[in-house]
Amino acid sequence: MYEVVNYTYNHLFDGLAMIQHFRIAPHEVKYQRKYLQSDTYQKVSTAKAPVVGEFGTAAIPDPCKNIFKRFLTFFSARDMTDNTSVNIIPFNDKLYAATETKYWNQIDPETLDRNEKLDLKELTTVDMATAHAHIDTDGTVYNVGHVFTKGLPTVVTRMPRQTDLQVVGSKLDATENVVALVPSSFWTHVHYFHSFGMTKNYIIIIQQPLLMDIKRAALGYSATDALKWHPDMKTRFRMIHKQTGEQLNKHMVYEADGFFTFHTANAYEENDNIVMDLVWHKDAGIIDAFYLKNLSSEKVEETFKKIDNSVLKRFVFPVNVSEKAKNGDSSSSAPFHISLKDGKVYCKAETICDVGLEFPQWNYAGYNGRKYRYVYGVGLHKGNRMTTSVVKINVDSKTYEEWSEAGCYVSEPVFIADPKGTAEDHGVLLVAVNKIHTKDLRSCFLLVLDATNMTSLAKVEFEGLDNFPRDFHGLFKSEIGKTK
What integer is the mean pLDDT of 64-83? Predict the structure, then answer.
């Protein structure tokens, strides 16, 4: 929801969250959607105004409060949004909607009602966390965030499966769920990150040159107004051991030419190296492009012409730098250069495939943290008009296949592995598709693709429905074998 009575949110990332749900049975698919009944939704609905700040929209004074109450609100801890509009995370057999603040909302998969609200600060100390937590093979949830205390540390957290999320506050020492603290290099700024990498043994933090001014954020500015891109700054990487919390080669600096990323793909360890794939943007211009004023029908084509395509790139980080340097493994053709004298490892970005890509997905259940071959995602193609497709990239051969259809705009593809499959790409992709036929004629359908050859297996249309809402990330959860 981007409009509230006489007010309009500023940014694509600001809208009040809507959950949409496809229930797939042997002979039918049912569709439902509902606005997430967050505290923010309730406050905004009551005030008939955006009185809680979002990513690109600062909170306006609540017209329901008198001047004295507004004064107290300004000088007290500001209400952080619980408008969890980014991702769905499974934990302890429940589903939680997440965003980049400290709140998760538990969603009832039958009714789409919110059952409970979790404050991650009480569980893991964080004041902000990514909406892209990683889930290990034992069910442990890892995440990366910031703590607004002395040193403004970045924190790596874990919540083991069966953590009692109802036992909070004085009954739980949240520091027990902290893996590591990494102090900020700046007095009043922190690096912005939307996701992170995870291998079998390491968490990979990406410190890109997009910095958030915590002073401005604390004064009530929107996140976009508190963010600033620093074009001359390098991007740095920190690898944290998941069990010990120790930083890999703490005496060395791993860095690359500055770039921006929203989404990592897979990461794994091989030949005494850590390998990480991610969607690479030249800079953070995509954030400004997503102001709604730039996405109007009159301006959207011009906006996207100005944005460079985001592509899948690979970074390789050596684990034993001394041994690699001694053996000459950091030659000009290597994916990194080690300077023991300067205490730096310069990492070179390798383009895996030059097709435009966002929303990367892979066979997470079977291959996350392991060497893999395939990345799926939304293909971005520039022409007279920005169009999208579903792409499959082979990271070994550096080639891609795609599904596309004229006038179609696709969601993030969700991979579902074939339980009887024997290969990494044995499975299907679920994609929500909006199709524009003419200016006044639209339709939508759920697309089921064969993930092996990218051909259509089925299209499901819903009577009376001609458009799905804009969406970000989704999740498939099977009910096969579920006990009542």
Answer: 58
pLDDT single digits (tens) 21-35: 999 998 899 999 999
Provide φ and ψ at 415, rounded to 5°. Answer: -85, 135
Residues in the chain: 484
The model's confidence at residue 322, banded by pLDDT at 50, 70 and 90, is: confident
pLDDT digits (tens, 9 = 90+) for 392-427: 999 999 999 999 999 899 999 999 999 999 999 999
Instruction: Provide the 3-class DSSP secondary structure of residue 128.
Output: strand
Beta-ladder partners of 436: 442
State the sign of the Cα–Cα–Cα–Cα dihedral 49, 53, 57, 58.
positive
User: Is residue 111 within a helix (H) or strand (E), and if so which, with residue range?
Assistant: none
Q: Please count the CA atoms within 13 angstroms of the CA of 379 that sit on its side-chain side.
A: 19
- Residue 287's φ and ψ, nearest 5 degrees, are -65, -45
In this structure, the dihedral spanned by the alpha carbons of residues 183, 189, 192 and 198, taken in order and rounded to 10 degrees, is 0
Q: What are phi and psi of 53, to 5 degrees?
A: -70, 145
Give the Å distances, CA to CA, from 208 to 5, 345, 384: 38, 16, 32
**Residue 199: which residues within 8 A CB-CB, separation 6 or more?**
267, 268, 269, 274, 369
Please state whether beta strands 311-318 and 235-241 pair in parallel, antiparallel, or not at all (unpaired).
unpaired
At 105-118, the pLDDT tens digits run 999 999 999 999 99
Would the CA dihedral through 207, 208, 214, 217 be positive or negative?
negative
Cα–Cα distance for residue pair 81/370, rounded to 1 Å = 35
Give, in degrees to the nearest 5, the angle at Cα 123 between 143 and 238.
30
Distance from C-alpha of 38 to C-alpha of 43, rounded to nearest angstrom: 9
> Is the pLDDT assigned to residue 45 strictly greater than 90?
yes
Cα 477–chain centre separation: 19
Query: Which pair of tokens denotes residue 149?
Result: 């205390």
Residue type, 81: T
Section 287-305 average pLDDT: 88
With beta carbons less than 8 A apart as the criterion, state whether 201 and 134 touch: no
3-state secondary structure of 289: helix
